[in-house]
Amino acid sequence: MAKLKPIKINHVSKYFGKQQVLDDIELTIEPETIYGLLGRNGAGKSTLFNIITDRIPLSDGEVTIAGQPVTDNDAVLNRIYLMSEANLYPSRMRVKDIFQLTAQLYQGMDMALAQTLAEQFELNMSTRFNKLSTGSRSIMKLIIALAVDVDYVFLDEPTLGLDANHRRLFYDALLDSYAKRPRSFIISTHLIEEASNLIERVWVLQNQHIIIDESTESVLNKGFAVTGPTADVEAYTAGLNIIGHEALGNLMVHYIYGELKGDRPIPDTVSISHIDLQRLFIYLTNQEVSTDEN
Amino acid sequence: MRIKAAFSYQLKNYFKSFGWVYLWSIAVVVILPFAISLLLGRINIYDINDYLPQFLPSLILSFYLFVFGGISYDGFKLFIQNGLGRKTYFLSKLSALTVILLVGEAINVLYGLFYHHFINPKNNPIMTFSVLYGHYFNSAAANTVSVLIITMLFTACIMVTGMVIGSSLGLFNRRVQRISIIGMPVVLFVLLAVLVMLNDQTSLKLTWIGDVLLFIVGMKQPVSTGHFVAYAPMISGTIYIMVMLFISYRLTLRFRVPR
Amino acid sequence: MQFDFNSTEPLYLQVAEQIEEAIFTNSFEEGTQVPSTTEVSKQFHINPATVLKGMNILVSDGFLEKRRGLGMFVVTGAHAKIREKRQTEFYEDYVVNLVKEAKKLSLPETTILEMIKRGYNNG
């Protein structure tokens, strides 16, 4: 196969009836990159994944790879795996048979890895799919996601229903697998903390739009917490992009997303620090909501 | 397209389920009555003729193709999860079921021969449609081939009907599906009853419906069974199959998850 | 007042600092191999690209070297180089802050010097 082409999401919109879920989404998924799709519950993360993987039709725009639309295009679809909450496997099929059929319908699967992971996760491969608990179903799909031979792996809330040990195990396995065979992972989650260090590029989906599409590093570089006496903080942050604030008596924290004014003197009483992705996300997605409600 | 992998996957599963349906049918239709008469101590009056109908394999095949042609959405779900689109799903399913149809018909002919020679020689011909079309041509070989083609087209019509019903149902959620599965036969029955009633009343002439039907099957005046026009069902059957396949294909392209 | 992003500085810098510290404390000895990008990545759930970026800083600083097909090794003399580097940075990193804080507290120069002497002798 020639060098991999990126997946392009061009002006994609989606309506369910009259309700708009996605509006003019523009994204590029490069090969061998780990993406994080962040958005609050109901923001449309799953819908976006379902559109990219051709599970549902889009209302407007197109998803292409090398100029070819993905719709019913096996050459592309067969290089993509989507792990989601939807249970599309035959309910009475045994786990090992599901592994087998995956290997057959896709272009192969690392059975040794699947076996090892099943042991690590204590997943009984002889159990029928409908007898698995919700957590075990997630585990089974995650094992397939890591072992199947594809170039783009979409993980929709991968660790939902997994306990802390299994979550850790999963990220171990993911990074191990990524190191051995780099490919793209697109992870949607609202448990940002556990994933933030492995995401190379962040997308934030909010109110039908992608409001952030940047490298994690530059996103983190733009997030600040300005702490100090209310008057001093307000004087310093005037005109900056304030995405949230917290007050404790006269002590004020302003959360900023964007550039600080380099020429503006920082009062001695005020301290400035960076904030983590989780916090940044919370304030960024709150802001949009509150401006809408006003 | 990954049609080859999809096709071999489908074919394997269809053969498996076809085998099971066969076994179960034989168990229910043949072995069960035998076991019952054995239990009741009436084995002396058990006659395999009563329990091994000549049409059993044809019935099984038609039933199988109708039902499995109808199961659409579950297959699509599995395929889309495994990176295969609707087109591949439809084409691999159609080709795999066609193989089943050919194999099934071959079994039917062999069974017909077997039945004709060993179980009930005096009765019917090897292929049922011989009764209608078996003497249209002057050559016996041509007649055999044409009846064979008509038989296969007829079974294929049943199959594509199942496919259209299944792919229509695939667009709806389970509730609507249940309602239509129960409701449609009722509606059809009522419709039929109304038609029959109307036909009885001489004021309305609905005989054209009958005429069309007769034309489709190739019955010509004066009626003489065995001499129906063999081309008529071939052409009408082919047209029906094409139309149904087209509809089913277009409906399949509209499948989505979740519904 | 100065920016102090120590706790939340970019991840790749933290990675570089952690490895540098490990070399300085002889946890990673000179001439030996340091853990691979993958190992570090897996251990701390950090994207391998980030880890590599951090390691590359140490390569350009001359503390680590790439050996083709083998991995990253601690350069001979890296320990001394790190000490040298930290010595030059000592003024910026510690003295400037110390003086600034002392001035805020109105501590005269002599007192600070005295304190340093005391700390030095006790240490």
Automatic annotation (TrEMBL), chain A:
Q: Pfam families in the record, alphabetically?
A: ABC_tran
Q: What is this protein called?
A: ABC transporter ATP-binding protein
Question: What organism is listed for this UniProt entry?
Answer: Secundilactobacillus angelensis
MF terms (GO), sorted A to Z: ATP binding
Highest taxon of the lineage: Bacteria
Matches recorded under PANTHER family: ABC TRANSPORTER, ATP-BINDING PROTEIN, SKFA PEPTIDE EXPORT ATP-BINDING PROTEIN SKFE
Q: Which UniProt keywords apply?
A: ATP-binding, Nucleotide-binding
What positions does the domain ABC transporter occupy?
7-232
- The answer to whether keyword rRNA-binding applies is no
Q: Upper lineage ranks? A: Bacteria, Bacillati, Bacillota, Bacilli, Lactobacillales
List the InterPro entries: AAA+_ATPase (IPR003593), ABC_transporter-like_ATP-bd (IPR003439), P-loop_NTPase (IPR027417)
UniProtKB/TrEMBL annotation, chain B:
What transmembrane ranges does the database entry give?
A: 21-43, 55-73, 94-114, 147-172, 179-198, 228-249
Q: Which UniProt keywords apply?
A: Membrane, Transmembrane, Transmembrane helix
Q: Which residues form a coiled coil?
A: none
State the name under which the record lists this protein: ABC transporter permease
Automatic annotation (TrEMBL), chain C:
Query: What are the residue boundaries of the HTH gntR-type domain, all occurrences included?
Result: 9-77
PROSITE patterns found in the cross-reference section? HTH_GNTR (PS50949)
Q: Does the keyword field hold DNA repair?
A: no
Q: What domain of life?
A: Bacteria
Concerning Gene3D superfamilies, the annotation shows: Winged helix-like DNA-binding domain superfamily/Winged helix DNA-binding domain (1.10.10.10)
Cross-referenced SUPFAM superfamilies = Winged helix' DNA-binding domain
Tell me which InterPro entries the record gives: Tscrpt_reg_HTH_GntR, WH-like_DNA-bd_sf, WH_DNA-bd_sf
The record ties this protein, via Pfam families, to: GntR (PF00392)
Q: Give the record's keywords alphabetically.
A: DNA-binding, Transcription, Transcription regulation
What is this protein called in UniProt?
GntR family transcriptional regulator
